[in-house]
Amino acid sequence: DAEIDDYAELIQADASLSNKLLGVTNASWVGPHRSVRTIKQAVSLLGTSNVRALAMSHSLTELYSRWELDQEDARAYCEASLCKAVAAQILALVAAPERAEEVFAISLFQDIGLGLFVATANTEFAELLRDPRFTVRSQLRYEYAHFGLDHVAAGRLLGQKLGLPRIYLDVSRFHHDERELTCAVNDHQIVRALHVAALLPHDIRSWKPEDILYLTFALKELFAGRWTGASTASAFIHDVEPEFARLATILSPHSATSTSLEEAMNRAYDDNVRFAIPAPQQVYPRRCEA
Description:
This protein is mostly helical. It has a single domain, classed as Hypothetical protein af1432. It is built from 16 helices and no strands. The protein is globular and about 50 Å long.
């Protein structure tokens, strides 16, 4: 009860979040003839872990709203962040279970720089993010050429302004570079989870075929025996999908996601054949040099 009281007190300080929490709770848990009227009741019904996810997702939504992103684009980026957070948490449960909830939160915020670039470039950059041939490497080069920095650097700067902890800033800056991430975070177990989850898409509507190849390779190298076979990535996404769908429904009960992660990934597999993308040769894990 003490923890619930603490959560309720914090949430009540934010009118927008309070309204969101009450709306979600009444839409998800309460029948038409009753309603939840207090924040404490809502926290008790949802549970503190769901409330944490709701609060963090709400902050992302508020940022995207402030930047006036297209509603469908904003939803796609929020769902992509949620997908990565769930994936990172599942991976952390294998590698570092005591830090799984922390890893979820860190991963949720790793791509906050993307939305700012979309807002700046209008539709051009958003369209590129949906192009399956627009790889992460191409994206980082494009961002630097057009904006003067890439989304990982922008994410770190935004995180600093938001007052996020140091580990959030480091993961935002280095989540696409496993070696640098290992040097910055200095905890190999959670680095594995965060880096592999970062291979999932920036836009939930478009999974990059190259990233799916790297995802399969990384899962086999870093989590050998947990997800096996020729369809390693499919087996992993099969585990991610239920929790992703559950949280997506809680966070947006009136517009539950229609995105099937497995279907989206299978389309990326087809694109691998169509674009003749070579298999990765990267070796995991790299060691941080002194």
